Amino acid sequence: MRVVLLLALLAGCSRKDGAPEPPPKPTATVSSASVSPPPVATPNTFLGEGAPTFVVGTQGDEAADRIVRHQARLVQGMFFPASTLVEDTTVVPGKGVDAWPRRPVVYGGPHVHAALAALAPTLPFQLERGKLVLGGETFVGDDLMLITVLPARAADADGPGFPRMLIYAGTGDPGVAEINAVPHGQHAILVADRFGVLTTGAWTRRAGKVVAALEPRAPREAFRTTERAFHGGKLRFSSLASEPASKDEEPYVEACVRGLDRVVERLSLDGAPTIDVFLYPDSATKAKLTGNGGAGHAVPSSHTLHVIRFDPKKGGALEGLIAHEGTHVIATAAWGAPGSAAMGEGLAVWVSGRYAGVELEKWRAKLGAPPKLADLLGKGFFARKEAETYPASGLLVDRAIASVGLVKFRAHLYGATAGEWAEACAAAGDPALAKD
Predict the structure, then answer these.
(1) Which CATH class is domain 221-332?
(2) What is the pTM of this model?
(3) Integer angstrom CA distances of residue 75 from 179, 218, 240, 265, 338
(4) Farthest CA pair distance, the chain
(5) How do residues 23-68 score in pLDDT, each as one tens digit?
Protein backbone atom coordinates (compact mmCIF):
# COMPACT_ATOMS: atom_id res chain seq x y z
CA MET A 1 0.00 0.00 0.00
CA ARG A 2 2.14 2.90 -1.21
CA VAL A 3 0.93 6.45 -1.51
CA VAL A 4 0.73 8.22 -4.82
CA LEU A 5 3.23 11.08 -4.69
CA LEU A 6 2.20 13.93 -6.97
CA LEU A 7 3.87 17.34 -7.06
CA ALA A 8 5.29 16.70 -3.57
CA LEU A 9 1.83 16.19 -2.10
CA LEU A 10 0.85 12.81 -0.76
CA ALA A 11 -2.66 12.28 -1.93
CA GLY A 12 -3.58 8.63 -1.58
CA CYS A 13 -2.70 5.01 -0.99
CA SER A 14 -2.22 2.13 -3.40
CA ARG A 15 -0.07 -0.91 -4.07
CA LYS A 16 2.78 -1.91 -6.34
CA ASP A 17 4.64 0.19 -8.84
CA GLY A 18 3.51 2.25 -11.79
CA ALA A 19 1.02 4.93 -12.66
CA PRO A 20 -0.93 5.51 -15.86
CA GLU A 21 0.36 8.01 -18.35
CA PRO A 22 -2.06 10.91 -18.64
CA PRO A 23 -4.48 10.70 -21.59
CA PRO A 24 -3.89 12.93 -24.61
CA LYS A 25 -4.34 16.69 -24.32
CA PRO A 26 -7.94 17.95 -24.22
CA THR A 27 -9.81 18.31 -27.46
CA ALA A 28 -11.97 21.33 -26.86
CA THR A 29 -15.62 20.93 -27.76
CA VAL A 30 -16.64 24.40 -26.56
CA SER A 31 -16.03 27.59 -28.48
CA SER A 32 -13.26 29.64 -26.88
CA ALA A 33 -15.27 32.77 -27.51
CA SER A 34 -17.99 31.58 -25.12
CA VAL A 35 -15.73 30.07 -22.47
CA SER A 36 -13.71 31.63 -19.66
CA PRO A 37 -11.94 29.15 -17.39
CA PRO A 38 -12.37 29.52 -13.63
CA PRO A 39 -9.15 29.74 -11.62
CA VAL A 40 -7.33 26.41 -12.05
CA ALA A 41 -7.42 24.27 -8.93
CA THR A 42 -6.24 20.70 -8.62
CA PRO A 43 -6.12 18.31 -5.66
CA ASN A 44 -2.45 19.20 -5.21
CA THR A 45 -3.03 22.95 -5.07
CA PHE A 46 -6.14 22.52 -2.93
CA LEU A 47 -4.38 20.37 -0.32
CA GLY A 48 -1.34 22.63 -0.44
CA GLU A 49 -3.37 25.56 0.87
CA GLY A 50 -3.61 24.18 4.39
CA ALA A 51 -5.24 21.55 6.56
CA PRO A 52 -8.54 20.35 5.04
CA THR A 53 -11.76 19.38 6.77
CA PHE A 54 -12.96 15.89 5.86
CA VAL A 55 -16.73 15.67 5.34
CA VAL A 56 -17.82 12.04 5.20
CA GLY A 57 -21.06 10.60 3.84
CA THR A 58 -23.34 8.72 6.24
CA GLN A 59 -26.31 7.88 4.02
CA GLY A 60 -25.31 4.38 2.95
CA ASP A 61 -25.82 1.17 4.88
CA GLU A 62 -23.61 0.31 7.85
CA ALA A 63 -20.88 -1.27 5.72
CA ALA A 64 -20.82 1.61 3.20
CA ASP A 65 -20.65 4.26 5.91
CA ARG A 66 -17.80 2.41 7.60
CA ILE A 67 -15.82 2.27 4.35
CA VAL A 68 -16.35 6.00 3.68
CA ARG A 69 -15.31 7.01 7.19
CA HIS A 70 -12.31 4.70 7.33
CA GLN A 71 -11.01 5.86 3.95
CA ALA A 72 -11.11 9.49 5.07
CA ARG A 73 -9.54 8.61 8.43
CA LEU A 74 -6.69 6.76 6.71
CA VAL A 75 -5.71 9.87 4.74
CA GLN A 76 -6.36 12.18 7.67
CA GLY A 77 -4.36 10.12 10.13
CA MET A 78 -1.31 9.71 7.89
CA PHE A 79 -1.05 13.14 6.29
CA PHE A 80 -3.29 15.65 8.08
CA PRO A 81 -3.44 14.56 11.75
CA ALA A 82 -4.30 18.08 12.90
CA SER A 83 -7.31 18.31 10.59
CA THR A 84 -10.97 17.79 11.46
CA LEU A 85 -13.40 15.11 10.30
CA VAL A 86 -17.16 15.77 10.37
CA GLU A 87 -20.26 14.00 9.10
CA ASP A 88 -22.34 15.19 6.15
CA THR A 89 -25.33 15.91 8.38
CA THR A 90 -23.42 18.70 10.14
CA VAL A 91 -23.57 20.74 6.93
CA VAL A 92 -26.82 22.51 6.02
CA PRO A 93 -26.31 23.35 2.32
CA GLY A 94 -29.38 25.61 2.19
CA LYS A 95 -27.51 28.13 4.36
CA GLY A 96 -24.96 28.66 1.63
CA VAL A 97 -21.18 28.97 1.67
CA ASP A 98 -20.96 29.74 5.38
CA ALA A 99 -22.56 26.40 6.24
CA TRP A 100 -19.43 24.58 5.07
CA PRO A 101 -16.18 24.11 7.01
CA ARG A 102 -12.87 25.44 5.68
CA ARG A 103 -11.36 23.58 2.74
CA PRO A 104 -13.88 20.72 2.64
CA VAL A 105 -12.74 17.36 1.30
CA VAL A 106 -15.90 15.39 0.59
CA TYR A 107 -15.95 11.58 0.63
CA GLY A 108 -18.92 9.87 -1.02
CA GLY A 109 -21.23 10.66 -3.91
CA PRO A 110 -24.76 12.10 -3.61
CA HIS A 111 -26.22 8.60 -3.12
CA VAL A 112 -24.30 8.24 0.17
CA HIS A 113 -23.66 11.89 1.12
CA ALA A 114 -26.48 14.07 2.44
CA ALA A 115 -24.85 17.43 1.69
CA LEU A 116 -24.01 16.53 -1.92
CA ALA A 117 -27.50 15.09 -2.38
CA ALA A 118 -28.98 18.42 -1.29
CA LEU A 119 -26.79 20.21 -3.84
CA ALA A 120 -27.48 17.74 -6.66
CA PRO A 121 -29.72 20.07 -8.72
CA THR A 122 -26.93 22.66 -8.92
CA LEU A 123 -23.91 20.39 -9.37
CA PRO A 124 -22.22 20.36 -12.82
CA PHE A 125 -22.35 16.56 -12.84
CA GLN A 126 -24.80 13.79 -12.01
CA LEU A 127 -23.57 10.80 -10.05
CA GLU A 128 -25.60 7.87 -8.79
CA ARG A 129 -25.16 4.15 -8.32
CA GLY A 130 -23.96 2.77 -11.64
CA LYS A 131 -23.84 6.03 -13.62
CA LEU A 132 -21.93 9.29 -13.98
CA VAL A 133 -22.99 12.12 -16.32
CA LEU A 134 -20.23 14.67 -16.85
CA GLY A 135 -19.23 17.05 -19.62
CA GLY A 136 -22.04 15.90 -21.89
CA GLU A 137 -20.95 12.27 -21.61
CA THR A 138 -22.53 9.35 -19.78
CA PHE A 139 -20.31 6.79 -18.07
CA VAL A 140 -21.96 3.54 -16.99
CA GLY A 141 -20.70 1.03 -14.44
CA ASP A 142 -20.43 0.48 -10.70
CA ASP A 143 -16.63 0.79 -10.81
CA LEU A 144 -16.39 4.48 -11.73
CA MET A 145 -14.57 6.99 -9.52
CA LEU A 146 -14.65 10.78 -9.75
CA ILE A 147 -11.95 12.96 -8.19
CA THR A 148 -12.43 16.67 -8.73
CA VAL A 149 -11.89 20.09 -7.26
CA LEU A 150 -15.30 21.64 -7.77
CA PRO A 151 -15.26 25.42 -8.27
CA ALA A 152 -17.11 27.58 -5.78
CA ARG A 153 -20.66 28.58 -6.69
CA ALA A 154 -22.48 31.77 -5.79
CA ALA A 155 -26.09 31.56 -4.66
CA ASP A 156 -28.68 32.35 -7.32
CA ALA A 157 -32.27 31.53 -8.25
CA ASP A 158 -31.29 27.92 -8.97
CA GLY A 159 -29.98 27.20 -5.50
CA PRO A 160 -27.58 27.99 -2.66
CA GLY A 161 -23.91 28.71 -3.04
CA PHE A 162 -21.09 26.50 -1.87
CA PRO A 163 -17.32 26.86 -1.50
CA ARG A 164 -14.66 25.24 -3.62
CA MET A 165 -14.30 21.63 -2.47
CA LEU A 166 -12.32 18.49 -3.25
CA ILE A 167 -14.63 15.56 -3.97
CA TYR A 168 -13.87 11.83 -3.87
CA ALA A 169 -16.93 9.96 -5.12
CA GLY A 170 -17.79 6.72 -6.87
CA THR A 171 -20.70 4.98 -8.53
CA GLY A 172 -20.32 1.89 -6.35
CA ASP A 173 -21.72 1.32 -2.90
CA PRO A 174 -20.06 3.45 -1.65
CA GLY A 175 -17.39 3.45 -4.40
CA VAL A 176 -14.60 5.21 -2.47
CA ALA A 177 -12.69 2.29 -0.93
CA GLU A 178 -9.03 3.22 -1.50
CA ILE A 179 -10.06 5.83 -4.05
CA ASN A 180 -6.89 7.70 -3.06
CA ALA A 181 -4.94 4.88 -4.72
CA VAL A 182 -5.85 6.32 -8.13
CA PRO A 183 -2.86 8.32 -9.41
CA HIS A 184 -4.17 11.86 -9.28
CA GLY A 185 -3.40 15.37 -8.15
CA GLN A 186 -2.59 17.35 -11.28
CA HIS A 187 -6.02 17.49 -12.95
CA ALA A 188 -9.10 19.40 -11.84
CA ILE A 189 -11.23 16.46 -13.02
CA LEU A 190 -10.30 12.80 -13.15
CA VAL A 191 -12.53 9.82 -13.89
CA ALA A 192 -11.22 6.30 -13.32
CA ASP A 193 -12.56 2.78 -13.49
CA ARG A 194 -11.26 -0.60 -12.34
CA PHE A 195 -8.49 -0.44 -14.97
CA GLY A 196 -7.17 2.99 -14.03
CA VAL A 197 -7.51 6.52 -15.35
CA LEU A 198 -10.32 6.73 -17.90
CA THR A 199 -10.26 10.46 -18.67
CA THR A 200 -9.18 13.79 -17.22
CA GLY A 201 -10.34 17.32 -17.82
CA ALA A 202 -10.91 20.83 -16.54
CA TRP A 203 -13.82 23.03 -15.51
CA THR A 204 -14.79 25.85 -17.87
CA ARG A 205 -17.66 28.33 -18.03
CA ARG A 206 -20.24 28.55 -20.76
CA ALA A 207 -23.13 30.98 -20.65
CA GLY A 208 -22.42 31.57 -16.99
CA LYS A 209 -22.51 27.86 -16.11
CA VAL A 210 -19.63 25.66 -14.99
CA VAL A 211 -19.15 22.76 -17.41
CA ALA A 212 -16.55 20.02 -17.80
CA ALA A 213 -14.25 19.80 -20.83
CA LEU A 214 -12.98 16.22 -20.99
CA GLU A 215 -10.15 14.53 -22.81
CA PRO A 216 -10.77 11.42 -24.96
CA ARG A 217 -11.46 8.24 -23.01
CA ALA A 218 -8.68 5.71 -22.65
CA PRO A 219 -9.41 2.51 -24.61
CA ARG A 220 -10.49 -0.68 -22.83
CA GLU A 221 -9.83 -4.25 -23.97
CA ALA A 222 -12.32 -7.14 -24.14
CA PHE A 223 -11.95 -10.06 -21.74
CA ARG A 224 -13.21 -13.63 -21.59
CA THR A 225 -14.71 -14.52 -18.20
CA THR A 226 -15.19 -17.72 -16.22
CA GLU A 227 -17.11 -17.90 -12.94
CA ARG A 228 -16.24 -20.11 -10.01
CA ALA A 229 -17.29 -20.28 -6.36
CA PHE A 230 -14.85 -19.87 -3.50
CA HIS A 231 -15.46 -20.04 0.25
CA GLY A 232 -18.37 -17.66 0.84
CA GLY A 233 -18.08 -15.80 -2.42
CA LYS A 234 -17.87 -15.87 -6.22
CA LEU A 235 -14.82 -15.47 -8.44
CA ARG A 236 -15.06 -13.94 -11.91
CA PHE A 237 -11.81 -14.89 -13.62
CA SER A 238 -11.02 -12.94 -16.78
CA SER A 239 -8.30 -13.28 -19.41
CA LEU A 240 -7.80 -11.31 -22.60
CA ALA A 241 -10.28 -12.19 -25.33
CA SER A 242 -7.51 -11.61 -27.86
CA GLU A 243 -5.69 -14.64 -26.49
CA PRO A 244 -6.93 -18.07 -27.63
CA ALA A 245 -9.06 -19.96 -25.10
CA SER A 246 -7.21 -22.85 -23.51
CA LYS A 247 -7.78 -25.58 -20.96
CA ASP A 248 -4.45 -24.46 -19.53
CA GLU A 249 -6.36 -21.64 -17.81
CA GLU A 250 -7.96 -24.04 -15.34
CA PRO A 251 -4.90 -24.29 -13.04
CA TYR A 252 -4.85 -20.48 -12.83
CA VAL A 253 -8.53 -20.38 -11.88
CA GLU A 254 -7.92 -22.99 -9.20
CA ALA A 255 -4.95 -21.03 -7.83
CA CYS A 256 -7.16 -17.95 -7.53
CA VAL A 257 -9.83 -19.92 -5.70
CA ARG A 258 -7.27 -21.29 -3.22
CA GLY A 259 -5.84 -17.82 -2.62
CA LEU A 260 -9.27 -16.31 -1.94
CA ASP A 261 -10.24 -19.27 0.25
CA ARG A 262 -7.17 -18.55 2.34
CA VAL A 263 -8.20 -14.92 2.86
CA VAL A 264 -11.69 -15.81 4.07
CA GLU A 265 -10.38 -18.55 6.34
CA ARG A 266 -7.51 -16.53 7.85
CA LEU A 267 -9.80 -13.57 8.54
CA SER A 268 -12.50 -15.88 10.00
CA LEU A 269 -15.19 -14.42 7.75
CA ASP A 270 -18.51 -16.00 6.85
CA GLY A 271 -18.42 -14.76 3.28
CA ALA A 272 -16.94 -12.31 0.81
CA PRO A 273 -18.05 -10.12 -2.10
CA THR A 274 -17.80 -11.23 -5.71
CA ILE A 275 -14.16 -10.79 -6.73
CA ASP A 276 -13.04 -9.98 -10.28
CA VAL A 277 -9.55 -11.24 -11.16
CA PHE A 278 -7.94 -10.09 -14.42
CA LEU A 279 -4.96 -12.20 -15.51
CA TYR A 280 -2.29 -10.77 -17.81
CA PRO A 281 0.41 -12.71 -19.71
CA ASP A 282 3.25 -10.41 -18.65
CA SER A 283 4.20 -7.17 -16.95
CA ALA A 284 4.25 -5.16 -20.18
CA THR A 285 0.67 -6.10 -21.05
CA LYS A 286 -0.54 -5.35 -17.53
CA ALA A 287 1.22 -1.98 -17.58
CA LYS A 288 -0.27 -1.11 -20.97
CA LEU A 289 -3.84 -1.94 -19.92
CA THR A 290 -3.84 -0.74 -16.30
CA GLY A 291 -0.92 1.67 -16.05
CA ASN A 292 0.60 -0.57 -13.38
CA GLY A 293 3.21 -3.16 -14.38
CA GLY A 294 3.68 -4.60 -10.90
CA ALA A 295 3.11 -8.27 -10.12
CA GLY A 296 -0.35 -7.53 -8.81
CA HIS A 297 -2.54 -4.76 -7.48
CA ALA A 298 -6.02 -4.44 -6.05
CA VAL A 299 -8.83 -1.96 -6.67
CA PRO A 300 -10.97 -2.36 -3.53
CA SER A 301 -13.70 0.05 -4.66
CA SER A 302 -14.71 -2.42 -7.41
CA HIS A 303 -13.51 -5.65 -5.71
CA THR A 304 -10.96 -6.15 -8.47
CA LEU A 305 -7.53 -7.78 -8.65
CA HIS A 306 -5.07 -7.42 -11.54
CA VAL A 307 -2.30 -10.03 -11.59
CA ILE A 308 0.41 -11.40 -13.87
CA ARG A 309 0.47 -15.05 -14.88
CA PHE A 310 2.67 -16.77 -12.27
CA ASP A 311 3.17 -20.41 -11.29
CA PRO A 312 -0.32 -21.73 -10.43
CA LYS A 313 0.81 -24.81 -8.50
CA LYS A 314 -0.59 -25.42 -5.03
CA GLY A 315 1.23 -23.15 -2.62
CA GLY A 316 2.83 -21.35 -5.55
CA ALA A 317 3.43 -17.72 -6.44
CA LEU A 318 0.02 -16.98 -7.96
CA GLU A 319 -1.87 -18.40 -5.00
CA GLY A 320 0.19 -16.28 -2.61
CA LEU A 321 -0.23 -13.16 -4.73
CA ILE A 322 -4.01 -13.61 -4.84
CA ALA A 323 -4.08 -14.11 -1.06
CA HIS A 324 -2.10 -10.89 -0.55
CA GLU A 325 -4.04 -8.68 -2.97
CA GLY A 326 -7.35 -10.36 -2.12
CA THR A 327 -6.84 -9.37 1.51
CA HIS A 328 -6.89 -5.71 0.54
CA VAL A 329 -10.27 -6.14 -1.13
CA ILE A 330 -11.97 -8.56 1.26
CA ALA A 331 -10.70 -6.97 4.49
CA THR A 332 -11.70 -3.50 3.29
CA ALA A 333 -15.19 -4.75 2.38
CA ALA A 334 -15.61 -6.44 5.77
CA TRP A 335 -13.69 -4.15 8.10
CA GLY A 336 -13.22 -0.83 6.28
CA ALA A 337 -9.89 0.76 5.36
CA PRO A 338 -6.95 0.19 7.70
CA GLY A 339 -5.75 3.03 9.88
CA SER A 340 -2.26 2.92 8.38
CA ALA A 341 -0.40 1.43 5.45
CA ALA A 342 1.39 -0.84 7.92
CA MET A 343 -1.85 -2.44 9.05
CA GLY A 344 -3.11 -2.84 5.46
CA GLU A 345 0.08 -4.34 4.06
CA GLY A 346 0.94 -6.16 7.27
CA LEU A 347 -2.40 -7.94 7.30
CA ALA A 348 -1.98 -8.93 3.64
CA VAL A 349 1.49 -10.35 4.33
CA TRP A 350 0.18 -12.17 7.40
CA VAL A 351 -2.70 -13.72 5.46
CA SER A 352 -0.48 -14.87 2.59
CA GLY A 353 2.14 -16.08 5.05
CA ARG A 354 5.05 -14.79 3.01
CA TYR A 355 6.61 -11.84 1.28
CA ALA A 356 8.65 -12.03 -1.94
CA GLY A 357 8.40 -15.82 -1.79
CA VAL A 358 9.99 -16.01 1.67
CA GLU A 359 7.96 -17.32 4.61
CA LEU A 360 7.09 -14.62 7.11
CA GLU A 361 8.88 -16.24 10.04
CA LYS A 362 12.17 -16.29 8.11
CA TRP A 363 12.00 -12.50 7.72
CA ARG A 364 12.78 -12.06 11.43
CA ALA A 365 16.39 -12.99 10.74
CA LYS A 366 16.55 -11.42 7.25
CA LEU A 367 15.39 -7.99 8.41
CA GLY A 368 17.97 -7.45 11.11
CA ALA A 369 17.01 -4.21 12.86
CA PRO A 370 13.38 -3.57 11.83
CA PRO A 371 12.07 -0.08 11.08
CA LYS A 372 10.97 2.02 14.04
CA LEU A 373 7.31 1.70 14.92
CA ALA A 374 6.75 5.41 14.28
CA ASP A 375 8.08 4.99 10.74
CA LEU A 376 5.89 1.96 10.05
CA LEU A 377 2.68 3.60 11.24
CA GLY A 378 3.23 7.05 9.73
CA LYS A 379 4.48 8.68 6.55
CA GLY A 380 7.90 7.14 7.14
CA PHE A 381 6.45 3.89 5.80
CA PHE A 382 6.80 5.28 2.29
CA ALA A 383 10.32 6.64 2.77
CA ARG A 384 11.77 3.16 3.34
CA LYS A 385 12.18 0.22 1.00
CA GLU A 386 9.19 -2.05 0.48
CA ALA A 387 11.45 -5.01 1.27
CA GLU A 388 11.74 -3.60 4.80
CA THR A 389 8.30 -2.19 5.51
CA TYR A 390 6.14 -5.00 4.13
CA PRO A 391 7.70 -7.91 6.06
CA ALA A 392 8.18 -5.74 9.16
CA SER A 393 4.50 -4.84 9.06
CA GLY A 394 3.60 -8.50 8.58
CA LEU A 395 5.64 -9.41 11.66
CA LEU A 396 3.94 -6.62 13.64
CA VAL A 397 0.51 -7.93 12.67
CA ASP A 398 1.61 -11.49 13.46
CA ARG A 399 2.81 -10.40 16.91
CA ALA A 400 -0.39 -8.44 17.55
CA ILE A 401 -2.75 -11.26 16.56
CA ALA A 402 -0.72 -13.80 18.53
CA SER A 403 -1.00 -11.55 21.58
CA VAL A 404 -4.57 -10.23 21.55
CA GLY A 405 -6.35 -12.46 18.99
CA LEU A 406 -8.00 -11.64 15.68
CA VAL A 407 -11.21 -10.23 17.20
CA LYS A 408 -9.40 -7.62 19.29
CA PHE A 409 -6.96 -6.92 16.47
CA ARG A 410 -9.86 -6.01 14.22
CA ALA A 411 -11.72 -4.05 16.90
CA HIS A 412 -8.82 -1.95 18.16
CA LEU A 413 -5.65 -2.17 16.07
CA TYR A 414 -6.52 -2.61 12.40
CA GLY A 415 -8.25 0.77 12.09
CA ALA A 416 -6.01 2.70 14.49
CA THR A 417 -4.05 5.64 13.10
CA ALA A 418 -0.51 6.41 14.22
CA GLY A 419 -1.81 8.92 16.76
CA GLU A 420 -4.23 6.37 18.19
CA TRP A 421 -1.86 3.41 18.30
CA ALA A 422 -0.78 3.51 21.95
CA GLU A 423 -4.36 3.91 23.18
CA ALA A 424 -5.52 1.15 20.82
CA CYS A 425 -2.86 -1.24 22.12
CA ALA A 426 -3.97 -0.61 25.68
CA ALA A 427 -7.61 -1.15 24.73
CA ALA A 428 -6.69 -4.40 22.99
CA GLY A 429 -4.98 -5.61 26.16
CA ASP A 430 -1.27 -5.39 25.26
CA PRO A 431 0.30 -1.96 25.83
CA ALA A 432 3.69 -3.43 24.96
CA LEU A 433 2.66 -3.49 21.29
CA ALA A 434 3.14 0.30 21.32
CA LYS A 435 6.87 -0.12 21.96
CA ASP A 436 9.59 -0.79 19.37
Answers:
(1) alpha beta
(2) 0.89
(3) 11, 28, 35, 29, 10
(4) 69
(5) 333 333 333 333 444 457 999 999 999 999 999 999 999 999 999 9
